[in-house]
Amino acid sequence: MDKLENKVAIITGGAGGIGRATAQLFLTRGAKVMLVGRTEETLKKVIYDFNSPNAAYCVADVSKSEDTQNYVRKTLLKFGKIDLFFNNAGIEGVSKPIAAYPEDIFDQVIAINLKGVWLGCQYVIPKMSDGGSVIITSSVAGLKGFKGLGAYVASKHAIIGIMRTAALENADRNIRVNTIHPGPVNTRMMRDIEKDISPDNPKEAQKSFEDEIPFGRYAEANEIAELVLFLASNESKYMTGTMQVIDGGMNA
């Protein structure tokens, strides 16, 4: 039997690199998947590419309470239950020192990366099946600082507090809550960060990041998806309140 046979999953940030790779893996392992994202055109393309009756989408801004409640409602209407929640949506903001960081962008990063995680836990977990699993995407930036990424770093540190609290509050229902902490991943987000740091030579910024990784390369999105699959499956049934680092040794 496949690891996620007859399980229903919500994945926020579902059209992005990690979200899409995870959705594809979940589908191959027997799950039904609701993809959540901000852009309908992109979500439609992903669903078309999947070509699966077990995949659906919902357009939502995860920082808004009403949108969050709507994607929960649509999942229950479409699939009848919720077993798994990959609380994954996030943005990087801009690369500027704290003293020069634009307040409006700081607010946007905190709204999506932190409030979006909070709202997801607030509205999804009460509707989840007992014994379910919540996986929240933090980052290696949730464990250490990075110059120029103060808003992103702050949001990813704070997610750990939400995870630990949710793990304690839902242990009586056997719902597991854990964070994952990827290092740089070969996705659109890192391309944007590289361009922001070094507009004239983004490859130089990439090399600088890679030099900090003992494995000497970025992760691929499917490698992160494999960790999410483990945390979603019964193979991790005694794990909750933990931080799972997947960074090629960057934080060693």
TrEMBL record:
Pfam families, sorted: adh_short_C2 (PF13561)
EC number: 1.1.1.-
Database matches in PROSITE patterns: ADH_SHORT (PS00061)
Domain of life: Bacteria
Molecular function GO labels: oxidoreductase activity
InterPro entries the record matches: NAD(P)-bd_dom_sf, Sc_DH/Rdtase_CS, SDR_fam
Xref: Gene3D superfamilies: NAD(P)-binding Rossmann-like Domain
Sorted UniProt keywords: Oxidoreductase
NCBIfam families assigned: PRK07231.1 (NF005559)
Family of this protein: Belongs to the short-chain dehydrogenases/reductases (SDR) family.
UniProt-recorded name of the protein: SDR family NAD(P)-dependent oxidoreductase
Native organism: Dokdonia ponticola
